[in-house]
Design goal:
- It is built from 6 helices and 12 strands.
- With about 260 residues, it is α/β, with parallel strands linked by helices.
- The protein has helices spanning about 15-25, 45-60, 75-80, 140-145, 165-170, 185-205, and strands at about 5, 30-35, 65, 90, 95, 100-105, 110-115, 150-155, 210, 220-225, 230-235, 245-250.
- It has a single domain (about 5-250), classed as Metallo-dependent phosphatases (Purple Acid Phosphatase, chain A, domain 2, 4-Layer Sandwich), CATH 3.60.21.10.
């Protein structure tokens, strides 16, 4: 397997075209997107984005799988049925991976874990640019852990404890002490969510994590509770350098040079 893992796209047609063309050049078998894909089917811009994405994927003979981010329309998404294989069909070549969905490539178990906190929620409109149930809940984490071990977690948010993000976001400080544009209560919610993702990662004893949401490309490790280390790879987004928003990996999640 050759899998192009991709960061936040936010309904940006130009960015998704660059991703698809790069995947074709790299002879990828699949595109795997880590949330904030831009699923807004209740808007004309969202429907147009999906139509154009589907047409370009069909042209290049590629499928795109994605986990939900906090800026995807979860209400519209959950109105669509889950197929027998556990995925949601969005279009012929676009598939959503529900929270807790597991799949196996060779002997590697992957699990999807969408969701995050919108720290800019107070400036958004519910049902239009902000959607309830955006967070991965404790109950969902419990169910995912109960489902057994997984080698690779594909999440939207990052797990708590990653040094790169701690330094970037001043996570060693209380929310009220940080130099941030966002309200303290939402920063606290975001911290709690990252801790939830960390509990999931440790609970399934994952050795690798891919995530988006924080809009920075980095590689780091966690000292895992299961006695080894967990490699964490953050992906950039469509607002930055596009080559910081993707990484080509094999079926085990190992980078392909």
């Amino acid at each position: 397997m050759r899998v192009l893992v991709v960061g936040d796209l936010y309904c940006n047609t130009g960015a998704v075209f660059q991703v698809i063309e790069h995947a074709a050049r790299m002879q990828a078998d699949l595109i795997l997107q880590v949330g904030d894909f831009g699923f807004w089917p209740r808007t004309e811009s969202g429907r147009k984005f999906l139509r154009k994405t589907e047409a370009r994927l069909a042209l290049r003979g590629l499928d795109l799988w994605w986990v939900d981010g906090n800026h995807d329309d979860l209400v519209a998404l959950r109105s669509r049925p889950i197929e027998a294989d556990g995925r949601r069909r969005v279009s012929e070549h676009v598939w959503h991976l529900p929270r807790g969905h597991r799949w196996v490539w060779e002997d590697t178990v992957w699990v999807a874990a969408g969701g995050a906190v919108s720290v800019d929620r107070y400036g958004r409109t519910e049902g239009v640019s902000w959607f309830r149930d955006e967070e991965l809940t404790d109950a969902e984490v419990d169910l995912i852990i109960a489902g057994g071990t997984a080698d690779v977690v594909v999440s939207h948010d990052a797990p708590w404890g990653v040094g790169t993000l701690e330094r970037r976001l001043s996570l060693d400080l209380r929310p009220s002490e940080r130099e941030s544009l966002w309200p303290d209560d939402l920063l606290e919610e975001s911290d709690d969510h990252m801790k939830r993702v960390r509990r999931l990662v440790d609970g399934v004893t994952a050795s690798r994590v891919f995530h988006g949401h924080h809009h920075v490309r980095y590689d780091d490790v966690l000292a895992a509770t299961h006695g080894s280390v967990t490699v964490v790879k953050g992906l950039g987004d469509n607002q930055g350098l596009i080559d910081q928003a993707w990484i080509l990996v094999d079926e085990a999640g190992r980078p392909i040079c």
